[in-house]
Amino acid sequence: MRTEIFNANIVLKDGVLIDGVCAFTDGVIDYVGLKRVPADQSIDAMGNYLLAGFVDIHCHGGNGYDFMDASFEEFNNIANFHLSHGTTTLLATTMASSKTETERALNTFDKHKRVYPNSTLIGVHMEGPWFSPEGCGAQPTEFFLKPTYEQIIDIKRKYPFVLRVSAAPELDDEFEFGKACRELGVVCSVAHTGADFATVERAKDNGYTLMTHLYSGMNGVYRKNAYRIAGAVEAGLYFDQLDVEIIADGKHLPVELLRFIYKCKGKDKICLITDGTRACGFSDGQTSVTGSLKNGTPCIVEDGVAKVLDRTGFAGSVATADRLIKTMLSIPELSIVEVSRMASLNPARVMGFNDRGQIAVGLRADLVICDKDINIKKVIYSGKTV
Description:
The chain is of the alpha/beta class. It is about 25% helix and about 30% strand.
């Protein structure tokens, strides 16, 4: 069956097609232009934006559930919650925990994909446990491990759907972990680290291609024996070979820092991520746990963000992808075209998802209709309205 969407301001890779038409058949886009086309079904976008579906490559949960302890049915609940906010591709993200809990989460993902093969959950991002206490954030340090070549080889053999990992590169002897990721096609990201600029510079030549939630869980400039040392943050901003994730909820990073990151990295090297927790969808004043209920970090939602109970830091995000886009559009230098790239095209490219991330003939019909204020009107996943 062929469907056309007409009367749409279609946000393309490099511009907006005003009063455009997009058509798709069997979940694949087959026309983008200005003329109406024959179709079995027509959708009037009523002058709203038509965006590529959002690609969130770092999300821990939502709607009261976390991937660390959810059942395979509850994985679907998380996916559908974020789908309703425009996320049509999602990486289920684990965090540092016991070996038993981590393996349980990975096995549950495996079962979920067998039962729900058409889910938006496309793979797994292991955020740890290969971290340094210097950049622990809300991750439980008792479960931190040293990254080794043997570990990632064994994980990828058992769980081929692990598509990316986050690790502290200063713990990676001779960068054997990073090199193995490169050989295996696993995206390897600098995260929760005490690394300095020089270490990240070496890491980016040895398999590390991404910075996990830039600024969070890593050093900026610091002093050692009275001398200033450039940190991981500066390396992430400086090296063109490194893409960066940002939690653009307006809380983890104020708008001033978001503008600075854009000034340094440009429209093509930034990926918007929710880092969403089970508290996504919660209201201020509600308590939650970031990570598993057994081994996670208790937190409270205040001011639109999850905080550890003593209010000394954040414990993950409660943002959805549409909120990230709204925040970025408050930056004067950015238009919907650049922000759409950051929410869809860039993360798809980073992960090698070549069949999605933009509105173009031959790509998946993963689409979002929203107004100028990014209020979601309709979500289309693989050609089907949801």
